[in-house]
Write a structure and sequence with these properties.
This protein is α+β, with helices and mostly antiparallel strands and about 290 residues long. Helix content is about 45%, strand content about 10%. It is built from eleven helices and seven strands.
């Protein structure tokens, strides 16, 4: 480990030290975590994944300790009290078994913890906007949905139920799949025409385009404009059930609507006539979640 670098030592004020934090040192410091919010395992696992994959970036965030007499570092000698901020990052270092350089701020008043993490957290959409992405809001929504489906294998839950993907992981996935931008654009068009969210339409467009691009283009064109559809066309049935679902239930359940879009696509691909699209996730005989074909 490189020697810690003391950046400044104001008289009786905060002490700033740049430290290569090893798993053992992180464990030692976590023993000082006596007054903090509950640990969120999904956040820890996401940070740890970035650390293991080499995606962790020094962003200026610091590990913060209150005033105290506990020896935090032997060389240079730095003391501190309870851990005020950084429990998720330190826990991730232990989980990833990685050594990560971070800024450590010690000798802080206990009261400073009350003002930590009170600002608005930067969303994925904010990051995409800073990168100059057009339609950054629907792109962020579609990107997360596709990642959860493709990488984490989630079907029935539209929220991360295991490891919450980090911004770095999602941005890397976008670099590997630039066609997602087109899917997000189509998703926005669909949302403007029928009561299907841009994220659901974007996810389904991405999935269907990998099966057959020509069929996918026709399916979403007719889903958007409804032109020339017979009443027994599955695309017509999908448009109708989307509107009815929105009127009857208000906010459309994303999981349910995604299943209906997939069932409509499968019927369209098979050339089947359909007047009513349904999906039954519960009851005595629950229906398996559909997969696009």
């Amino acid at each position: 480990m490189n020697n810690p670098i003391v950046l400044s030592t104001p008289q009786d004020g905060p002490v700033y030290t740049l430290v290569d934090i090893t798993p053992d040192l992180a464990k030692k410091w976590l023993a000082q975590n006596t007054h903090n919010r509950n640990l969120r395992e999904r956040v820890v696992n996401g940070y740890a994944a970035d650390m293991r994959d080499g995606n962790w970036v020094e962003d200026g965030q610091s590990i913060k300790f209150a005033k105290g007499d506990v020896v935090l570092l032997d060389n240079p000698p730095i003391n501190g009290g309870p851990l005020l901020d950084g429990q998720h990052r330190l826990s991730a270092i232990v989980t990833a078994n990685a050594t990560i350089r971070m800024l450590v701020v010690s000798n802080l008043p206990d009261s400073t913890q009350e003002t930590m993490d009170t600002g608005a957290k930067r969303s994925l959409g904010d990051v995409l906007k800073l990168r100059g992405e057009e339609r950054y809001v629907p792109l962020a929504a579609a990107l997360l949905r596709v990642y959860l489906w493709e990488v984490q294998g989630q079907r029935r839950s539209m929220k991360a139920d295991r490891v919450k993907p980090t911004h770095r992981q999602l941005l890397q996935f976008l670099e590997e799949h630039p066609e997602l931008r087109r899917s997000a654009e189509i998703g926005s068009r669909v949302r403007g025409a029928v009561s299907i969210s841009a994220s659901t339409a974007g996810l389904c467009h991405w999935l269907f385009s990998r099966i057959d691009q020509s069929d996918c283009a026709f399916f979403f064109a007719r889903l958007t404009d409804g032109a020339g559809l017979d009443t027994d066309d599955p695309i017509y049935a999908l448009r109708r059930v989307a509107e009815n679902f929105a009127k009857d239930k208000g906010r459309v359940n994303e999981e349910h609507m995604t299943a209906l879009v997939i069932k409509g696509w499968n019927a369209y691909r098979e050339g089947r006539q359909v007047r009513l699209l349904t999906y039954k996730p519960g009851g005595a005989t629950p229906e398996a979640y559909p997969e696009p074909k």
